[in-house]
């Protein structure tokens, strides 16, 4: 959601155009405009989903009181009982859905209680509204609970005033361009460095989660949204069949609060306080608080602030092989250090080695473009025309590792480079195949212009790789920031 009078974010505009193209496909008598299988799948198979996770840490003694093993103390119970497709449990960075009928099985979809066999509880509906012109979000979630044992668990995790919860929702599939089909996979609740990470919660402010939510919104082209909030009200009723109906009201900061920038004169002590809380940057005697993608540590000296952060742009399935990017902000310059490795047993390891973003065959890739694009847009939102001014890449074909470092700074030609793409190839004939992909790459993003080569890379270390890295503008939707 944009502040009144501001234009929509770039990924929202792109998604509107993509949906227009999708729904306009197949119109007329032109055989070339026939809908593809992927387009038909997008139009008839898309479904919604919702996840509700508790941020409550429970002591072992409290669990024992209600007959739950103390081994689930801390965040263990919250991880085991995430409300998504019934009860799902977080294991190895993935939400695992329950299956099976026999209640004695630890992962069974059914339990046995006073009234016999009972299916899992589940979310019936969620009503999300924005209040005060977007400054707050309010969600009302209705839950069906099928026996007393399930009620005890949900009562511990969700039915308390002031409890912190994460609510996520979105579409199961989407199209980034009106033609191809993408699936929404790992989200914030599964991110091993965020919601269920005690280190993150212990040293970051409440506002630090909002840019991460915005990252996933951009990653999934607006087909994802979430709110981190507190339970402001709840109610439940007992039914004649032994089931329960519960309702939870959640209040959270909204998108407008996330995107606000302050530009007010303050004293030095207040400046330092704001920086420590929100990851701001100081300029002269005024402070501009901004929200980069994520923030973990901040250090300041006199009138210059340097913010260093560690983040994960990987989905759940890729977090094992992608190095957590280290992002540093200093004097309007963003430096990103990232990398990945190819696990043994990966199909076509040579091809996987140069999958800097994501390959089509199995989705393997280092998510490099996603990480850089996110930071380009972050600088643009701070009213600065961005540009990738430097890129370093190191590929080790003997160890199957990749390391890269990108520098983003104010544009030196007045253009706003808000996108980054790459094409390449490996092995014999890689040069020709890489160059042949350039023109098709320029058609990936609608309305992209000014494709500029950032780096023409080749490596002979173990496997020959030729990779071309480009940045581009989208002046029609994200025009250059006018400076005085």
Description:
- This protein is α+β, with helices and mostly antiparallel strands.
- It folds into two domains: 10-257, no CATH class; 311-473, no CATH class.
- Helices cover 22% and strands 36% of the residues.
- The protein is built from 13 helices and 25 strands.
- The chain has helices at 10-24, 37-45, 60-65, 76-80, 148-157, 198-203, 209-219, 255-259, 268-278, 349-353, 368-381, 430-436, 438-441; strands spanning 48-54, 82-83, 87-91, 94-97, 110-113, 116-119, 122-131, 136-145, 164-171, 173-174, 182-183, 224-238, 244-253, 263-265, 281-283, 286-288, 297-301, 304-310, 322-330, 333-341, 386-396, 401-410, 417-426, 449-459, 465-473.
- The strands form seven sheets. The protein has a six-stranded antiparallel sheet.
- Strand 10 (173-174) and strand 11 (182-183) form a beta hairpin.
- The longest helix has 15 residues, at 10-24.
- 37% of the residues are buried.
- The model is unreliable at 255-318 (pLDDT under 50).
- DSSP strand tally: 25
N/C terminus separation = 28 Å
- Strand percent estimate: 35-45%
The average pLDDT is 79
Structural class call reads alpha+beta
Shape: globular
Regions with little confidence, pLDDT below 50 for 5+ residues: 255-318
What's the domain count? Answer: 2
- Number of helical stretches of at least 4 residues: 13
Major beta sheet, specifics?
Answer: 6 strands, antiparallel
Radius of gyration: 24 Å
* Order of strands, widest sheet: 1-9-12-13-8-7
Question: Helix proportion of residues, in percent?
Answer: 10-25%
């Amino acid at each position: 959601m944009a502040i009144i009078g501001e234009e929509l974010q770039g990924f929202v505009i792109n998604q509107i155009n993509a949906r227009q193209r999708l729904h306009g496909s197949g119109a007329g008598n032109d055989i070339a405009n026939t809908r593809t299988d992927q387009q038909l799948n997008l139009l008839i198979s898309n479904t919604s989903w919702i996840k509700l996770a508790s941020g409550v840490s429970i002591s072992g003694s409290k669990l024992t009181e209600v007959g739950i093993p103390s081994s689930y103390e801390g965040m263990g119970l919250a991880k085991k009982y995430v409300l998504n497709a019934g009860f799902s449990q977080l294991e190895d960075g993935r939400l695992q859905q329950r299956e099976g009928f026999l209640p004695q099985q630890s992962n069974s979809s059914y339990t046995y209680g006073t009234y016999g066999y009972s299916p899992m509880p589940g979310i019936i509906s969620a009503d999300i509204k924005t209040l005060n012109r977007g400054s707050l979000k309010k969600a009302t979630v209705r839950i069906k609970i099928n026996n007393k044992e399930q009620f005890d668990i949900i009562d511990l995790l969700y039915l308390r005033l002031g409890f912190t919860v994460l609510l996520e929702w979105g579409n199961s599939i989407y199209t980034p361009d009106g033609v191809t089909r993408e699936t929404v996979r790992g989200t914030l609740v599964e991110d091993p460095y965020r919601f269920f990470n005690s280190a993150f919660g212990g040293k970051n402010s409440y506002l630090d989660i909002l840019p991460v939510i915005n990252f996933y919104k951009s990653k999934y082209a607006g087909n994802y949204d979430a709110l981190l909030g507190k339970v402001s009200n709840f109610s439940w009723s007992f039914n004649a069949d032994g089931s329960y109906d519960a309702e939870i009201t959640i209040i959270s900061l909204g998108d407008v609060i996330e995107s606000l920038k302050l530009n007010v004169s303050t004293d030095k002590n207040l400046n330092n306080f704001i920086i420590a809380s929100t990851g701001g940057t100081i300029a002269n005697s005024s402070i501009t608080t901004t929200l980069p993608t994520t923030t973990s540590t901040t250090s300041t000296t006199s009138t210059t602030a340097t913010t260093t952060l560690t983040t994960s742009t990987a989905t759940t399935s890729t977090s094992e092989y992608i190095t957590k990017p280290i992002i540093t902000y200093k004097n309007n310059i963003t430096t990103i250090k990232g990398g990945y490795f190819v696990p043994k047993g990966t199909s076509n390891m040579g091809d996987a080695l140069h999958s800097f973003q994501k390959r089509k065959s199995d989705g393997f890739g280092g998510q490099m473009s996603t990480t850089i694009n996110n930071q380009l847009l972050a600088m643009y939102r701070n009213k600065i025309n961005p540009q990738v001014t430097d890129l370093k890449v190191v590929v080790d074909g003997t160890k199957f590792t990749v390391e890269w470092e990108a520098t983003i700074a104010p544009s030196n030609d007045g253009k706003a480079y808000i996108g980054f793409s790459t094409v390449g190839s490996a092995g014999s004939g890689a040069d020709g195949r890489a160059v042949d992909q350039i023109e098709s790459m320029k058609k990936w993003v609608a309305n992209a212009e000014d494709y500029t080569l950032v780096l023409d890379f080749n490596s002979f270390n173990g496997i020959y790789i030729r990779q071309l890295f480009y940045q581009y503008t989208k002046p029609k939707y994200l025009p250059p920031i006018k400076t005085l």
